[in-house]
Amino acid sequence: MLDIRIEKAPVLKEKPDPATLGFGKIFTDHMFIMDYTVEEGWHDARIVPFGPFEIHPASTVLHYGAEIFEGLKAYRTAEGKVQMFRPIENVRRMNASAERLCLPEIPEEDALQVLDAFVTFEQDWVPYKDGTSLYLRPFMFGNDETLGLHTIKNARYVLIASPVGSYYKEGINPVRIMIETEDVRAVRGGTGYAKCGGNYGASTRAGMKAEQKGYSQVLWLDGVERKYIEEVGAMNVMFKIGGEIVTPELSGSILPGITRKSCIEVLRNKGYKVTERKISVDELGKALADGTLEEAWGCGTAAVVSPIGELCYKDTIFKINDGKIGSVTQELYDTLTGIQWGKIKDTYGWIYPIAPNN
Ligand code: PLP
Ligand code: COI
Predict the structure, then answer these.
(1) Is the pLDDT of residue 168 over 90?
(2) Nearest ligand atom owner, CA of 194
(3) Closest residue by CA, ligand 2 atom 8
(4) Which of 7, 50, 239, 256 is deepest in the core (most CB within 10 A)?
(5) Residue 125 has what DSSP assignment?
(6) First vs last Cα of the chain: how many Å apart?
(7) Which residues line ligand 2 (CB under 6 A)?
(8) Residues 253-279, buried b or exposed e (16+ Cβ, 10 A)?
(9) DSSP per residue over 162-182, as a string?
């Protein structure tokens, strides 16, 4: 159990108009910080006013990219209650990322306590409007003050929060995605399965190219043969082919998404056949040609469930379901968001309630 010190901001900010929220542009009044040293372990846990902090110019993170992060949300139900969605999964994945980057792990109960304490403290920031939420961004970085390459002995964990609306400007309308054929995001043995900043830094060039062509994000192919579908920049992908749901298997190079895992459970529970396997671009092209590629969607915390209306591969355009949202995508969106916003009973045990603060 961590001892969390609280330093309140002298002046609280005005809450934004929930109708104008984008993604990750506004931050709450406070942030949580704790530090790690080999001698003391995790210590000095504190909730302090949100703002910049000092970092040594030789800090490991600035030179060697020792950084990991997570993304989860707190939702407001129609009754005004606040709840998180499967936070323990984020806690576990962050520890798996920490193991990969040789950053210090955090005992699960402490990491959960931090999320609970911070959301309880900042709960007035969870917006009331349908479809909005408070996005939680825990991150950790190596913070040794030396340029030598060695095992990390000092680290910092920070948790910030941002009231958000839709991640894509399209909202629930289908997005257009570009299949990247040159750059690769990850290879087996690399850091693809870890949620580390470096994966995203290396993705920027392809993302920029996609944006310039008018696409929302990049769909990555495997790093060896550049043949098999991996995932999109900020979400995992699923396809409905000939009545069956297929999604790329967790091979070590894609992020084991918590939304992906939840979609698979929901779909199987509804009686759909879901298979995790390799899916080639070739197979998608053939399925499109013979009319069996029925739906495609991406899933992730920020993106929720997002229909894919068009894929661009080299010079070929794959138009899926006439560029419209499909029935399984809609059903999945309704079920998942229904559980998250408390409109549907959670029969899975995924909801983590936050106690009111007054
Ligand atoms: N893949 C990538 C690369 C991501 O950044 C994300 C977002 O976190 C996901 C998949 C989806 O993961 P999750 O559902 O846990 O948010
Ligand atoms: C999330 O969905 O939480 C993400 O991390 C996406 C982010 C890279 C924008």
Answers:
(1) no
(2) 1
(3) 234
(4) 239
(5) G
(6) 23
(7) 71, 234, 300-302
(8) bbbbbbbbebbbebbeeeebebeeeeb
(9) EEE--SSTTTTSPEEEEE-SS
259 lines ligand 1 (CB under 6 A): yes
Query: Are 144 and 267 found together in one domain?
Result: no
Q: What pLDDT was estimated at residue 357?
A: 84
Q: Is 301 in the pocket of ligand 1 (CB under 6 A)?
A: yes
Q: Is 94 part of a structural domain of the chain?
A: yes
**The two three-digit tokens of residue 240, written as one number:** 């409905």
Atom 5 (ligand 2) nearest CA: 71
Q: Are 232 and 314 found together in one domain?
A: yes
Q: What Cα–Cα distance (Å) separates residue 320 from each residue in 7, 239, 240?
A: 52, 10, 10
Could you report the per-residue pLDDT of 5-32, keeping only the tens digit for each? 999 999 999 999 999 998 999 999 999 9
Q: From the CA of 146, how far away is ligand 2's center (Å)?
A: 30
Residue nearest to atom 3 of ligand 1 (CA): 234
Bridge partners, 53 (sequence order): none
Same domain, 115 and 24: yes
Q: How confident is the model at residue 169 (pLDDT cuts 50, 70, 90)?
A: confident
Is the pLDDT reported for residue 188 higher than 90?
no
Q: Can you tell me which atom of ligand 2 is nearest the CA of 167?
A: 9
Task: Indicate which residue's Cα is closest to atom 4 of ligand 1.
Answer: 234
123 and 225 both lie in a single domain: no
Domain span including residue 291: 175-340
CA–CA separation, 304 and 325 (whole Å): 14
**Residue 166 pLDDT class (50, 70, 90 cuts):** confident
The model's confidence at residue 171, banded by pLDDT at 50, 70 and 90, is confident
Check which CATH number belongs to the domain holding 211 and give it: 3.20.10.10
194 and 155 assigned to the same domain:
no
Residue with tokens 């800090």: 59
Q: What's the whole-model pTM score?
A: 0.96
